[in-house]
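Why do we bother with holo predictions? Because pocket geometry can differ from the apo form. Keep that in mind while you read this record for DQA.
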Amino acid sequence: TSLLILNGPNLNLLGTRQPEVYGRTTLADVRAICEAEARDHGMTIAFEQSNHEGALIDLIHAARGTHAGIVLNAGAYTHTSVALMDAISSASVPLVEVHLSNIHAREAFRHRSFIAPVALGQICGFGATGYALAIRALAAHLAHEPG
Ligand code: DQA
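The structure, written out:
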């Protein structure tokens, strides 16, 4: 079983970007955490990052039939992108929304998520650990809803 771990805009800068908000963990560290967690559940991952909305949409479309689930940190597109929301609905691959920071404790414009209504659930505020929690949640979901 394979999962797609998908990261949106500016997450390539993780570790150096606003460390007071996002910590010192790099995207390479996040990838290693995801690989270890997936392995614990007998799964593999594809790990992607793009700063481009259309590229993220293409990857979500391509996940259908390729990946059993998606972990998505859509970055700021979370709060703006009807197109990403529609892509998730169209692909109908189970998806868990992740944010490193607690978006509900931040500016009001970060409280709204276009991803949340089409996600199994949302995990935020736990840094890179949130990705591992999301993989665990997908593993449990897939065990109950195979195929
Ligand atoms: C983020 C939260 C978003 O509001 C922000 O635009 C990001 C990162 C997070 O992981 O905490 O780019 O998705």
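The chain has five helices and five strands.
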